[in-house]
């Protein structure tokens, strides 16, 4: 007998097993953003992390969406402005959709990023 919970459990397991590389991509973008400490670069790093994760396939897209949404929802709860939240989400979706994250790259950001 197949139940909804068993199907969802198998589905979640599939996403979790396929999402590890995407999660690593998101962490690398976050770490690079902190290391660079470059004013005006946060949208670039949002887009880049989502882009890199999405290149891994459906599991990477899933990981990027879950991580981005969790981060943005947490920041909204801590009083961050709606305009900044919308701009971050736009950059997240831009990268996740496969568009070039360099669209958001600020002038002068070192090439290692």
UniProtKB/TrEMBL annotation:
Keyword NAD: no
UniProt record similarity statement: Belongs to the SAA family.
Region (Disordered): 92-113
Domain of life: Eukaryota
InterPro entries, A to Z: Serum_amyloid_A (IPR000096), Synovial_Prolif_Regulator (IPR052464)
Membrane-spanning intervals of the chain: none
Biological process according to GO: acute-phase response
Function: Major acute phase reactant. Apolipoprotein of the HDL complex.
UniProt keyword Cell wall biogenesis/degradation present: no
Keywords recorded for this protein, A-Z: Acute phase, HDL
This protein's encoding gene: LOC106002157
Record-level GO cellular component terms: high-density lipoprotein particle
One Pfam family hit: SAA
Protein name as it appears in the record: Serum amyloid A protein
Record PROSITE patterns: SAA
Compositional bias per record (Basic and acidic residues), positions renumbered to this chain: 96-106
